[in-house]
Structure formats: structure tokens, C-alpha cells
Amino acid sequence: MISTLRSAVSPRRRRFSLSIYISLLLIAVALLTLTAAISSIEIFLRPALINQLSSDLEKDAQTHVQLIDTYFSERLNDVKILSASETLQALLTGDQADSGAASNLLFSAFHRDVADYISISVLNTQQHVVLTYPAPPQSHGQYLIQPEALTQLKGSATVVASDVFYDPLANNPSIDLYANIFNNDFQAIGTVRASISLHRLWEPVDSEAQVNGSGSYAFVLDQHGVRIAYTNPDASGFTRPDELFKAVAPLGNGFQQQIASENLYGNSANAVKSVEDTTLAALPSSSIFQFNPTGEDQTYVTARYSSAVFPWTYFVLKPLSAVTGLADQQLQTVILIVSIVILLAVVIGVQAGRRIALPIMSSVRSLRSSSEVLKSLADQEQTVATEQTWMVEASQIAMKSIRYYTKASSHAARRLAALSTDLRNDPHHYDPNRLARALTQMSQMADYIEKAMGYQEQANEKLASSIRVTTQAATQLTRDAKSTDETAAQLEQIVQRLTRVVGAIGASDEPGEDR
């Protein structure tokens, strides 16, 4: 029992205190929560946000392109109607009587979109101006009609669009729309040329920052890979973006000569250069993609949509960081909350650990004190047991001495009784010598009995002393047993207190143990 109690109260070495263990447990729970939150954000929320924004960008690009296509379809239809006009046919065949009606016709067409029409002109087959409103058409280089457009117009009844021009003084981009005027024999006798501003193209491009948020922008590539529209960060419109009229890939020598001879893109004022972007030059097949534009240090989510009227492609871009901003904000919020929780876990863990550890440490001290008491009792019991062993041995020796002297006294007494009986029965039988020997023997036996009784008395005193010491030892053992029982009861109370602290349902006694 003593050894069991000693092993029970012997302190175990721990690397950390209970307070730290509780704090670490709370921190681990907080970190698990943080991990679950971050995983849900990264696995579910972030992709959902990217998909949602990508869909919104695609719809935005589609909506703007459809509006642009609708507008330019109306202008194409205006030119188509003019080219089929009998009034213009009569004018080109030399009927000057119809000149007033032709002027009214151009006036009416111009005022269909007075804000964007620059001029509407009627040219003969020699590209001389026959009629124009409201001002003479501006030549591009030495051409009123692009040579490339003339090639497309031969025998064609469709409306042909030119490449993009730019007037840096008016900050006005434009294109020319051409359509043949045929006589009754379907022979081309002239051309309608309508110059149209591209501000209707620039307006949605410039509005992307307001529509999709800060950092968003858009641009339009023509069939040559030149940026013919680009979001202008200058709201006043007095300056133009550096990327405007820059190609996404090196231009061929033939087209560069065409740019110079026809003054495309305002080349005479600002030479057309390349700001290369391999991703755009390859024209990704996907309508939604992510890439790092040239000159940018971040990834953009990009949606593209192609015009159904002109060979132009509309691109709208939004920073990926803006797309995932909500997820990042939630992630930061979660990290902040978990950091606060971890700090609280440390404080609460230390406090709770102390509240739990104090009664435990008090119980441990009580256990150690009880252990010391039990150890002292064990030492006393060991001493008493040694004394008892010695007293038992002394008592055994005394008992042997008593038996010996009792037996010797009994033998001497029987001998003395025999001599006395013999003398009493036959006194005459003894002569003086024999009588003297008999009396001497009786005297010696009396002395022997007296000495034996003295030794026996000494043995009796030793035995009485042994009995007295044994009685004292028994009393001490009884007292020690009572102290041991009280100490065991204290230990049981301590165990019950510890059981309540650790939250156990109940404590079971060890079977077969004596207190």
C-alpha cells in the first residue's frame, strides 16, 4: 500500500504546464477554424466570384458590342439607301434639275446623326466631288477613296468601310463608308462617301472604369491588330491614352507603307508603333481568359467579343485582385478574428489553467505531505517490528531458561524429598558418615534450588520486560495504524477533489488494497 501511494503521488515530468496545454488546445481549435474558413474561401468563394465576374464582363462586352453594331448598322443602311437613290443617279447622269433634291437628300441623311456624321459626299468615277454636305470631304493622303476600298467596290453593291483615320487637332477618330451608285444598266457611275466619327465607339470604352470599377478598362482591336479605341484616364478628353493606335504585334512593311501614304490612325502627327502583346496578337479562342497585359504587373480577367458589322474585337479587362477583393477581404477578416481568438485563447487558457492547476497543485502538496507522513509511519513501524523481533527472541531465551531452571529445581526437589523420606523412615540405616553426606547433599540441593530460583527470577524479570516492551510496541502499532487510516482517508478525499477537477464521472477503488 505504501509503495502504491508513493508511486501515485510521485511527480511526473511535464514539458509544459497545464495552462500552456489548455492555451495550445484552444489555439489549435482556432487554427482549425481558420484553416476551414480559408479552405472554403479558396475552394468555393474565390472560384465562384471569378466565374460570376467573368460572366458579368462577358455580358458587358456583348452588350456594348451589340449597341455599337446597332448604331453602325443604321449608318450602313443610311449609305445603302443613299446609293440606291434615283435622285443621285440622275445627278450623276447630268440632270442638274435634281441638284436641289439631291442636296436635300444629303441634308436629311446627315441629320439622322448630326452628332457623328462629319460629311456626306457624292463622287463621280474620277473621284471628283459632285455634291457634299456640310463640308468638302477630307482627303487621306492623296485619296478621297482608299485604294483598298476601290478594289472591294468593283462590281459590288455592298457598303465598304475604310480603315480608321484620326484628326489629332479635333481629337476625332473616323471611318469612311463607301457605296457604289449604279445606273439602270448596273454600271457604277459614282460613289457615296460618308465620313463618320467613332466617338460612339469610344464612349463605351471610356465608361468601363465606371461600369466595372477602378482599374478596369477596355480597348478595341481592328483587323490589323491596332488599338483603335482605348479607355482614356483623362476625363477631360484633351489628351489621349499612350496605347491608342498602337499595334499588338509588329506590322508588315506593306501595311506600314499604306499607313504612311493614307495617313491612317493620324500617323502624320504621331507615328504608329507597336506595343507588343503576344497573348492579344494570338487572339485567344476563349471569350474569357486571364493574362498579364504588356506594361501591367498584375493579372486581369478579360472578356472579348467580336463585332458582327466590322472586323473589330472588343476587349474589357478587370484586375483579378478586384475580382477576388471580396474573398481577400473576408480572408483578412477571418485572419483578424482568429488572431483575436488566439490572443483570447492564450489569456483564457492561462487563467483557466491556473484555476485548474491551483487545486491540483494544492492536492499534490497534500499528497506529498501525506506521503511523508506515511513514510515516517513506515519507518516507525520498521523500528517497532525490529524491536518486536528482538523481544520475541529475548522472550524465547527467557522461556528456555525458565523451563531449564524449573526442570532442574523440580529434579532437586524430588531428590531432596526422597532423602527426607528415607531419613524419616529409616534413620538408623544411616551411619554418621552416610548421614553427613546425605545432609551435605540436601544442603547442596537447597543451595541449587535457591540459585535456580534466583536465575528463574531474573528470567521472569526479562520476560516481564519483554511483555512490557511488546505491549508498548502493540500500542504504537495501533496508534500508527490509526494515523495510517486517517492519512488514507485524506488521500481518498484528495483523489475525489482531483476527480472533480478533471471532470471524471467517479473514482473506482483499487480492489485488494489495504489502507
Can you describe what's shown?
The chain is α+β, with helices and mostly antiparallel strands and 515 residues long. It folds into 2 domains: 47-323, 2-Layer Sandwich (Beta-Lactamase); 345-502, Helix Hairpins (Orthogonal Bundle), CATH 1.10.287. Helices cover 59% and strands 14% of the residues. The chain has 12 helices and 13 strands. The chain has helices at 2-9, 18-83, 86-92, 99-110, 147-153, 199-206, 208-212, 253-262, 278-281, 320-323, 325-425, 432-502; strands at 117-124, 129-133, 160-161, 165-167, 172-182, 188-197, 217-221, 227-230, 246-247, 273-274, 288-291, 300-306, 313-319. The strands form 3 sheets. Strands 1, 2, 3, 4, 5 and 6 form a 6-stranded antiparallel beta sheet that branches. The protein has a 5-stranded antiparallel beta sheet with strand order 8-7-13-12-11. α2 (18-83) runs antiparallel to α11.
Identify the notable features of this structure and list them briefly.
five-stranded antiparallel β-sheet; Helix Hairpins; Beta-Lactamase; disordered C terminus
In brief:
This protein is of the alpha+beta class. The chain has helices at 2-9, 18-83, 86-92, 99-110, 147-153, 199-206, 208-212, 253-262, 278-281, 320-323, 325-425, 432-502, and strands at residues 117-124, 129-133, 160-161, 165-167, 172-182, 188-197, 217-221, 227-230, 246-247, 273-274, 288-291, 300-306, 313-319.
